[in-house]
Amino acid sequence: MEDALQQCRSQGILTGSKKPKVTLEIPKHDGQGDFATTLALALAKIEKKPPREIASALISILENQNSWIEKIEIAGPGYINFFLTQDFWRQTLLSIHEQKSGFGKTSVPTKEKILIEFVSANPTGPLHVASGRAAALGDALTRLLEAVGHQVDQEYYLNDIGAQMKLLGRSTYLRYRELFGEKITLPEGSYQGDYIIEIAEALKQKDGDRYLSGTETSHLDFFTQYSLKTIITWIKTDLHDFGIDFNTWFSEKDLHKNNEVPEVLEFLKSKTMLYEKDGAQWVSTTPFGDDKDRVVVRSNGHKTYFASDIAYHRNKFKRGYDRLIDIWGADHHGYVNRIKAATEAMGYESGRLTILIHQLVNLLRDGKPVKMSKRAGTFVTLREIIEEVGVDATRFFFLMRRSDTALDFDLELAKKATNENPVFYVQYAHARLCSILRVAKSQGFDTAALIKNTDLNTLKPLTLPEEMAVIRELSRYPELIHSAADALEPHRLTFYLQNLSGLLHRYYFSCRVITEDELLTHARLVLITAIRIVLQNGLQILGISAPEEM
RNA sequence: GCGCCCGUAGCUCAAUCGGAUAGAGCAACGGCCUUCUAAGCCGUAGGUUGCAGGUUCGAUUCCUGCCGGGCGCACCA
Predict the structure, then answer these.
(1) How far apart are CA A344 and CA A338, in angstroms?
(2) Which end of chain A is flanked by fewer CB atoms within 10 Å, N or C?
(3) Nucleotides, chain B, CB distance < 7 Å
């Protein structure tokens, strides 16, 4: 297109100098070609000529230039619609079989080194639903970004120090005493879930009554560390069973141990981004878009949580990452501006930190909201959900919506979900393909050999509109992966897979793959194995299995 | 009060950088299994894209105001 525009200008047909961006899109409706461009519309203003006139000038250059082009039409106000030959589409099947699991991924080895931090729930209890959404999102994003050539590490930030930790230790300690018949009252803000009793019980089994004597203070640290260790193990196990193993578990305690918080404050001071007021130390975040400057050291000498957060982000950058992605729940969105401002104050480009906000999950049971509170212990855990619903369905469910819309997760619905859960629709499409392949094999077809001997000629029997529709959708896959990765929106992939599955089911219904006609059967086997590859590739990115039978 | 996110079919959601006639699933209604898996397919119905302006060839998309919902606004962690 760009060449055509250039030629028009050098031949004096068009006279403008500005060059609009040339984009190709896939039209929504039949009869509008395989690809279309709005270039003539965009040029109309620059050239001061009617768009249709510009379009016909462009077409005169474009015609007969490319053997894939069947015909070109001008439509509506000045769209240029391209109709491509069937060979063009068939040829994408060859490239799918050539690239296999690499189809849709870029061949460029490493573009950027990215650290994606997600879940990072406080280790004061088992993971619950909202963390599951973050987990599914972060994990799918990781593979999406890897598919387009980035190197991605996954990190979990552990808030393993501070007041919450003390409270956790205290809660376990009191439950422990309770197990020996003592009457206790849990203070305001304690963790009251049954899992605390579970931890205390395990300790009683292991060590008996040895912590009954002595003061609470003398045992508190032990109880804190013991509870913490137990809970971290739970969290790791739950995530592992959900299909996620983080590259690093970053401890806030280590951050303090290594003196990084005071260091970052010194660093900010050296950049004149730190000042003292009212006995406290403040970071200048306002010049970078924050509403107000923020306190990092309180007048009582205590460093705020925000101070550790700044130090943590500096630590990430210093480890050599080009880009950081944080995934936070909507309940933390108020912190986006300040942490972005703080990283800018340290001198890091704002574009290098992306904070992705996901809206909260409304857990429903029979359509009624389940009130959840970690402290009161009334929450549904991620484990409970994956045990009841299954990993595949849970992940798919979490990834079906754009991250910035609230997600209703009805447990009863998800549990009985056979009809209503779309993951089955996609997985069934895959299983169906496998089933055809099994039958083909039993009838003596060697699909692998057929694929090896495929070329444009052997694909000629593929002529039906249903077949072209599927192939067109397959060819769209690499571009879809790129745009989903750029936008950090894995949900686009779930929609794509549902759509592709729909095309397959429709094709299955209207055409038989295995027929008397051997050449046709060959071509169709090549087609369905290509569909299978794309379904597998897509499901792999989402972290969902592709079953061969259902 | 201020800030961020969302308002699209009865419900849950899409809509490729501002593009053509706004699409799926579920629910409803009517059809399709002597055939490679009916966890499937086909058809019908369903809309003033919250409201009102603005920007332009063109707006679900961008801007302003309003209405409604969610979340957040500490020298807390």
Answers:
(1) 10
(2) C
(3) 2-7, 12-17, 19-27, 35-42, 56-57, 70-77
Q: Where would I find the H helices in A190-247? A: 194-207, 216-241
Question: Gap from A131 CA to B43 C1', in Å?
Answer: 42
Point out the nucleotide closest to A521 (alpha carbon to C1′): B36
Least confident of A81-90, A226-235, A448-457: A81-90
Beta-bridge mates of residue A74: A80
A215 vs A337: CA distance, rounded Å: 44
The pLDDT tens digits of the residues spanning A156-175 come to 999 999 889 999 999 999 99
The first and second tokens of residue A204, run together, are 């009683």
Any idea which residue has 């994003």 for tokens? Answer: A141
What are the tokens at A31?
């009869």
Cβ–Cβ < 8 Å for A358, A134: yes
Spanning CA of A497 to C1' of B30, the rounded length in angstroms is 29
Nearest to A161 by CA among A305, A327, A266: A305
Record: fold of A2-84: Gyrase A; domain 2 (3.30.1360)
Q: How confident is the model at residue A220 (pLDDT cuts 50, 70, 90)?
A: very high
- The answer to whether residues A103 and A537 touch, using CB atoms and an 8 Å cutoff, is yes
Over chain A, what is the mean pLDDT? 89
Q: Report which of A201, A111, A197 is spatially closest to residue A148, judged by C-alpha positions.
A: A111
Whether domain A421-542 has CATH 1.10.1060.10: no
CATH of the structural domain A118-245+359-419, one choice from 3.40.50.620, 3.90.226.10, 3.50.50.60, 1.25.40.390: 3.40.50.620
Tokens of A292: 């107000």
Alpha-carbon distance A214 to A225, whole Å? 18
Q: Could you tell me which residues are beta bridge partners of residue A25?
A: A36
Q: ipTM score here?
A: 0.94
Q: Where are the domains of chain A?
A: 2-84, 118-245+359-419, 421-542
List the A382 CA – B30 C1' distance (angstroms).
42
What are the angstrom distances between the C-alpha of A26 and each of A36, A83, A94, A272, A479?
6, 11, 21, 52, 11
Tokens in use for A268? 């900010």
